[in-house]
Design goal:
14 helices, 15 strands, elongated, alpha+beta, 424 residues, 22% strand, single chain, seven-stranded mixed beta sheet, disordered N terminus
């Protein structure tokens, strides 16, 4: 969308169809699974949904759906990761604002809040800005009545303002993908693969496995995860556009591999001992034998640990799970969970690696890890999440955050006053 899109002919705020939104979302840089008819159907469980947009003639140039949910003082509209429009074009912003205002008035709503997917500023993986802030977007939103919620940091309860993204453009195969990771991440993936971990897709009847692992992570991090019914609705609503993946151990096979390595190490030690008997300079061989002893001891210890796990949990154990949304623009990992007893096998590295390989195979050039805190400080509690994602390589997108458009001035004022009192 450009200035000419809005300037050549008049712009018309209008109702649109779910199919129009899906086609528009698929063609826009800002488009994501959040602005699709599938996510709108999920939103409909919370309240009425309206599809609105802006047209120039017959051409759709801005679009979104809005969900209306009940608050203490009346309905409030929400547009997640939208509207999809050119925020640097004042005519488009004005027309899209009018489309949402009309929708809100028709629903007798107090206000509409939106969280645009347009980038406010880009940062490198260390958090250093690499672009100028989009002040034009901010000015246009303010000009047409939108109140900004501030440039926040930390994890948001609705839509994160900070996302970590891995670009896959120019990466064509597994070798190139691995080369784009840090050395540490490549090592993690190799350990996971060598330990017999495998990734597969969960069927609907297996979603309780996903929920169980998410509950484990939620309990460690001090928040409540979604229930099984919610994820079943996601599965049913998104169909082929969603994948629930699980990483499972295959410790019986891993045990066979370890035993083969132990046998080979023991054989090497015996050969070294034979050479030592007639060696003129035994020091070097003695060092090699000592190294072999350490290797054998380590293998024997690991074999004992794996045998203990098999005895208590069986050979095949789900240790990591994630849910991935497919969109023509990107794949998003919305949430995941892990059994932390198996963190040293690096299942979280493997599951994202496999998902990125799927992206390459299907021609999707963007893998969105979603939220980080935006606090780039090694002493901050959120540092581990940020560090984990950066080792895949990538960059940070800073979004503008929340905007609210008052529609019913009186009720909005009362609602704002009540919120301020409650927050004191």
């Amino acid at each position: 969308m450009t200035q000419s899109d809005a300037g050549v002919a008049s712009l018309t705020p209008t109702k649109i169809t779910p199919a129009e939104l899906d086609a528009f979302s698929a063609a826009q840089v800002q488009g994501s699974f959040q602005q699709t008819s599938q996510m709108a159907a999920m939103g409909a469980f919370n309240g009425p949904v309206d599809y609105v947009g802006v047209k120039r003639g017959d051409k759709l140039i801005a679009a979104c759906y809005v969900v209306y949910t009940q608050s203490r003082f009346g309905l409030e509209g929400s547009v997640w990761c939208g509207p999809l429009c050119d925020y640097d074009n004042p005519q488009v912003v004005e027309a899209m604002t009018e489309a949402l205002r009309r929708s809100a008035k028709a629903h007798h709503a107090i206000s509409v809040s939106c969280w645009p997917a347009a980038v406010y500023r880009l940062h490198d993986l260390d958090g250093k800005p690499t672009s100028d802030p989009d002040t034009t977007m901010m000015d246009n939103m303010a000009r047409f009545g939108w109140k900004h919620g501030g440039f926040t940091v930390g994890y948001e309860s609705v839509v994160n303002r900070w996302n970590f993204v891995k670009g896959l453009d120019g990466i064509h195969n597994e070798k190139e993908l691995l080369a784009s990771f840090s050395k540490y991440r490549r090592k993690n993936i190799r350990i996971a693969q060598d330990s017999g971990l495998r990734v597969r897709r969960l069927e609907r009847g297996e979603l309780s496995t996903f929920v169980k692992l998410c509950d484990m992570s939620a309990a460690r991090q001090g928040f409540k995860s979604r229930d099984l019914a919610y994820y079943e609705r996601l599965f049913d609503t998104f169909g082929d556009l969603i994948e629930f993946k699980v990483v499972e151990t295959h410790f019986d096979e891993y045990l066979d591999t370890l035993q083969s390595k132990l046998n080979a190490a023991s054989k090497d030690k015996r050969n070294l001992e034979r050479l030592l008997q007639r060696a003129s300079d035994p020091a070097t061989l003695e060092k090699r034998i000592a190294t072999a002893d350490k290797k054998i001891a380590a293998l024997e210890k690991t074999i004992g640990e794996v045998n203990g796990i098999i005895a208590s949990d069986g050979p095949v154990i789900p240790v990591e799970a994630g849910v991935y949304f497919w969109h023509p623009n990107e794949v998003v990992c919305l949430s995941s969970g892990e059994d932390d007893r198996f963190m040293d096998y690096y299942p979280s590295s493997l599951i994202h690696f496999e998902a990125m390989l799927d992206c390459i195979a299907r021609g999707v050039e963007r893998f969105n890890f979603y939220g980080i805190s935006g606090i780039f400080d090694a002493n901050d509690p959120s540092y581990g999440v940020w560090q984990f994602k950066t080792r895949f390589g990538g960059f940070v997108e800073e979004l503008p955050g929340k905007f609210t458009l008052p529609v019913d001035g009186l009720r909005f004022g009362v609602s704002e006053a009540a919120h301020k009192l409650l927050h004191r």
